[in-house]
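name: query_chain
kind: protein
chains: 1
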Amino acid sequence: MSDSTKNQLKKTLGLSFNIAVLIGGTIGVGILRTPGTIAGMLDNYWLIIASWLFGGIYVLIGANSYAELATMLPKAGGSYNYIKRAFGDYAGFLSGWFDYITNAIPPAFYCIVISEYLIILFPVLKSYSTVMAISLLVAFVLLHLSGVKNGSAIQQITSFLKVICFVCLVVACFMYSGVQLAPIPKDNSFFQFGLIFGFFKSLQLIIGTYNGWNSVCFFAEENDDPSKNIPKSLYTGVLLVIAIYVLVNAAFFHVLSIENVAKSNLAAADVANIIFGKNGAIIVTVISIFSLISILNAFMMIPPRILYGLSRDGFFTQKGTNVNKGGTPITALLVSSLFSLFLIYIGSFEVLFSFAAFTSIIVWGLAYCSLIKLRNSEPDLARPYKSFWYPWTTILAIVASIALLGGFIFSDPKSFIIIVGITIVSYPLFLVLKRKK
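structure:
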């Protein structure tokens, strides 16, 4: 068997995995934590709900463009393939590594947070936090080394349980007698400087919470029918996530006033304590663990696919294309896991996470631009699915991305400076790799 055949990913994934990895890779504990922070920034029920809907509509419009891109170029690694095809090697290299870093950070963070939640349930484990985090990482590495089918099965089971948990929580909240809903404001208070700042800062958190919505595109090469499955799963998964996010926020504000939500570090726990009594915190902890296991499994699978694609195009070691008998890109998985292990030891996530929303917006924006570029430069390229209302929906996605990026720069200039620094350093590195290639 030739190396090129041996190192090909296997087409073993279908529609149910796609929907599961999108939901599993998007919904985490962010939705349980962020409502309090956002309530503190906006202090208005309708503006908060509108912010979550705005983020959701932005993602849905993006899914429309990604459905065409991923079916047109169904290759491992997702976004960077489209950007590279449209704008050349350096654009592909930079966006690919931005995407990789954004997706390679979460596994370490989730391993640590799961261990912290387990300690809440079992306080005797308090001194074993790091050991548990590393054990979780090793367990998931072994799971994925055993083959893609096992990882896919775990993803579908955990994502299903996650959705059931959130539905039960929402139903329980609405069965509670509730607090009086705030009226729709009639003044122009939104146009105050502080509220505009809070709106963009909230959107940065919301976009971070929606991050993962395009997970299915990373696995396009392994899908048994990408032309049909990718568009279906993108729309179905994104609409489900939007519904859950909006309903969870509405449910929390049904139980607690905005003032009380704003004071809470973990709004879900305070809500659950009111509904379920003293067992509320335990119920939220269990929901959090299910959410985290599902999202951890998804993010153990995503970075190796990006690294596999980068390696195949000469932007990383050629060994990154090694695939084992189970269909797992083994070297890419091990490299990503070592990076996660390093992060578990240093435990420094704040700076890394703060610009995750930045890098996501940049990569998505470039992907939308690549759709327009490829429509013009390669009109005869096979397009099994065409984005509806093109080019207006794609232009809208680009304009929204630029507006969000501008808002993020305004509200978080430090993260933007870090990204500019990474971009400057990346070019000499690209030239070295290109020379070797």
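note: Residues 193 and 199 are 10 Å apart (CA to CA).
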